[in-house]
Amino acid sequence: MSETPDAPRAPEGNPPVVTPVRVVIALCLIAPFVALLWVGSYAKVDPTFIGIPFFYWYQMLWVVISTVLTMTAYALWNRDQRARKSQNGGASA
Asked: CA-to-CA distance for 43 and 40, rounded, in angstroms?
């Protein structure tokens, strides 16, 4: 009898590999790539900001946004790792 495989499970006592926090981390890291690789969405001159065409200031804005998203992902990752270590009793995973 063939059984359909369920989603991968973590070994007993270990937390699941894919968690909502890790999904948020992935979204924080993927968002800048999607926003900047979709050039058609910002390849225009208007609106200008202090005389700078949209094409340029949009990209510079994403430098700041990417920094904030990366810092957020890093903080979430550290918090997740601390929680996993405390859950496993300090054992390295």
From this structure: 5
Contact 75, 28 (CB under 8 A): no
pLDDT digits (tens, 9 = 90+) for 62-88: 999 999 999 999 999 999 888 888 877
8 A C-beta contact, residue 57 and residue 49: yes
- The span from the CA of 53 to the CA of 44, in Å, is 8
User: Model's pTM, two decimal places?
Assistant: 0.73
Helix (H, G, I), strand (E, B) or coil at 52: strand
Omega before 32 within 30 of 0, i.e. cis: no
